[in-house]
Write a structure and sequence with these properties.
The protein is α+β, with helices and mostly antiparallel strands and 245 residues long. The protein is built from seven helices and ten strands. Strand 2 and strand 3 (88-89) form a beta hairpin. The longest helix has 41 residues, at 2-42.
């Protein structure tokens, strides 16, 4: 009996340590996403134009999207996205990018990706928790520079503007064919339970501890005060349970 009790106690501690470790990975990714924004926007005349990021409804960052393959290219990465709300920038929502582009690609590389949702239609696609770039949401490679040229149509047409940085080079990128979906495992690790994309990105959930770097970066470059973070988890019994299953 004593051996069984000891085993149960050790198993409980191991599970808690494992869960803490998984959450730490998401927190590290939040910091990496903020660092990507800081470094991109700090580059003289090579960042995202102020008018563009200042008009974005949501900002998503994927640190180290993996691309590679021979003949058929593939892409996979994990990231965080935050959206404007009446209270400020929302809590970060965890997502993953999966998919590929066909073409002659040899070898592989890791690139940092920034995605900007530019209008209400794009926002609705994002809140659905899953959409395909180029099919469900129109996308375009975003303009680069300190200011956007008047001739560009980024404000009128594109629901989603996409950027990449690889080996120090920053430019617009096409991610057509890639699927963006909520990362439910990372969401559970970060929030302590499953919470829907819609609840997170519309400001119904307080940003958990560890959200600050990305929310502060979004506020710094795109305006709007970040929502105050909370160390508490989403309480059991919330209306999110049915929505997020």
């Amino acid at each position: 009996m004593k051996k069984l009790l000891v085993f149960v106690v050790l198993a409980s501690f191991s599970s808690a340590a494992w869960a803490a470790g998984d959450r730490d990975k998401v927190v590290d990714r939040v910091q990496s996403a903020a660092t990507v924004l800081d470094e991109i926007m700090a580059a003289p005349d090579k960042g995202i134009p102020e008018e563009v990021i200042g008009s974005a409804k949501c900002i998503g960052v994927v640190p180290s999207l993996l691309k590679g393959g021979f003949i058929v290219g593939a892409a996979y990465g994990k990231g965080l996205v935050t959206c404007r709300t009446e209270q400020g920038w929302s809590a970060p929502a965890c997502f993953r990018v999966e998919g590929g582009s066909f073409g002659l690609q040899i070898g592989g590389q890791a690139v940092d990706v920034v995605m900007l949702v530019m209008n209400d239609h794009g926002m609705r696609n994002l809140l659905s928790s899953k959409f395909k770039i180029g099919a469900d949401a129109s996308a375009a490679a975003g303009p680069v520079g300190r200011h956007a040229e008047a001739a560009t149509d980024w404000k009128m047409r594109a629901q989603l503007l996409t950027y990449s940085r690889a080996r120090g080079l920053f430019a617009g990128i096409s991610l057509n064919g890639a699927v963006v979906r909520q990362d439910k495992d990372d969401t559970r690790d970060f929030y302590g339970r499953m919470v829907s994309f819609r609840s997170i990105l519309t400001g119904k959930v307080a940003p958990p501890a560890g959200s600050e770097p990305l929310l502060n970066a979004a506020a710094k470059y795109a305006g709007t005060t970040p929502v105050k973070t909370s160390a508490t988890e989403v309480k059991p019994g919330s209306t999110d349970t049915a929505q997020a299953k």
